[in-house]
C-alpha cells in the first residue's frame, strides 16, 4: 500500500493597513451640552445617542475619542469641531 501525503499550503497575504488616528474631544467650561451634541452630529455623523454619550464622557472624564479613521478623513471633521469652538485634536 502506498500512503499519499496531503500537503497543506499556506498562503500569506500581505495587506496594507493604514494606521488609524483618532479625534479626541476635550472638556471645556464654555460650550453647552446641546452645542457639543449638535456639533458631533454635524461634524462626525453621530446619532443623537452617540453624541450625547460622548458629551457625557467628555464632561466627566475630560476627554473622549469621537471618531477613528485615516488622517485624511479625520482632518476636515476635526476642523469643523474647532471652528464650532470645541477643543479637539487628531492623535
UniProtKB/TrEMBL annotation:
Signal peptide: none
Domain of life: Bacteria
Keyword annotations: Hydrolase, Protease
GO term, biological process aspect, one: proteolysis
GO molecular function: peptidase activity
UniProt xrefs under InterPro entries: ClpS_core, Ribosomal_bL12_C/ClpS-like
Cross-referenced Pfam families: ClpS
Start and end residues of each Adaptor protein ClpS core domain: 21-83
Protein name: ATP-dependent Clp protease adaptor ClpS
Protein species of origin: Psychroserpens burtonensis
Lineage: Bacteria, Pseudomonadati, Bacteroidota, Flavobacteriia, Flavobacteriales
